Amino acid sequence: MNTTTYGLDIAKTVFQLYWVEPSGKCFNRRFSRAKLLEFLANRESGRIALEACGSAHWWARQLQALGHEPVLLHARYVRPFVQTNKTDAADAKAIWTAAQQPGMPIVAPKTESQQCVLGLHAMRQLRVKMRTMLVNQLRGTLFEFGIRIRPGLRAGLQEIVQRMDELEQNVPPMLFEFVREQLQSIERLDQEIARLDQRIDAWGRQNRACKTILAIPGIGMLTATAMIATIGDAHTFKSGRQLAAYLGLVPKQTGTGGKVWLRQS
């Protein structure tokens, strides 16, 4: 018995599903979120292909719970199969068509734990960026009043704190108040980053694969947890080169007429 393949175009509130019945009849239907889950719960197990976008990994877990096999495809591989103007119906059919191609690369669904760790990393990265921006903005503002602060985030912050009495004498009162408040904002970001580090560190110490990677010289907890959360099951990849390509560590390859060039990613 052949397994039915579906092409699912997901959005926030509207979902388009394309499939072909064994009789050869084609369907391209629109669903709400609740109606889609209800419909798929009453269907026999099948392959459901969807683009690997923001919520695709959550949907993959929902489909697995309903007994279906999720197939995540890179959007770049789906786009060539859109035959008409880009619509939800056309996208769903293109996803279905792409899923039928032999050797089509697929993306392994992430677990809830992987997504949580990647979310913590994203939150940490944003706070680190905000902290750097606040420190640089503070250094530039003080320089406009003839006050030079030595480079480096920690060194600069330490010097600013040590010279607060001097700054109060040389910076206009209407500005100095906000210099003090900006320092407090930076301190709060430091505390938030520290709490995120603790949560990431706790997860890494409980993860067997993460412990293995930590044994490699030069790899710390942040790199190890980010790598494991991004890769997931290493057995998904056929070779180390395929893994490197997935992480973007190898250059692009283009060729024509028997000549091949390696280019930057």
Features:
11 helices, Nucleotidyltransferase, domain 5, 2 domains, 265 residues, 5-stranded mixed sheet, 7 strands, alpha/beta, two-stranded antiparallel ribbon
Tell me what you see in this structure:
The structure is a single chain. The chain is of the alpha/beta class. The chain has 2 domains: 5-99, Nucleotidyltransferase, domain 5; 112-232. The chain has 11 helices and 7 strands. Helix 9 (208-214) packs across helix 10 (221-231). The chain is elongated and about 85 Å long. It starts with a strand and ends with a strand.
List the uncertain runs.
none
* Overall spatial form: elongated
What is the count of helical runs? 11
Strand and helix order: EEEHEHEHHHHHHHHHEE
Mean pLDDT level:
91
Q: Could you give a short account of the major beta sheet? A: 5 strands, mixed
Using the CA coordinates, give the radius of gyration: 26 Å
Going across the biggest sheet, name each strand in turn: 3-2-1-4-5
How many distinct domains?
A: 2
Q: Which band does the percent of strand residues land in? A: 5-15%
Q: State the helicity in percent bands.
A: 40-55%
Distance between the termini: 43 Å
Quickly give the structural class: alpha/beta
Number of strands: 7
